[in-house]
Amino acid sequence: MMAPGDWFARYGCIALVVVSFAFIGAIVAGPLLRPLWSPRVTIAQLSPGGSR
């Protein structure tokens, strides 16, 4: 059985690597996916009294 210090060190390093890849992936994918995130219809056009 592993000591708690070894467990935290091992899984802490694994978590750091996973978070690093997720962070870099978000930076790379952000500009590519931005057109999909920004809808053509604004919130003012969706509201009941908006832009008549």
From TrEMBL:
Membrane-crossing residue ranges in chain numbering: 12-33
Superkingdom: Bacteria
Keywords (A to Z) from UniProt: Membrane, Transmembrane, Transmembrane helix
Protein name: Uncharacterized protein
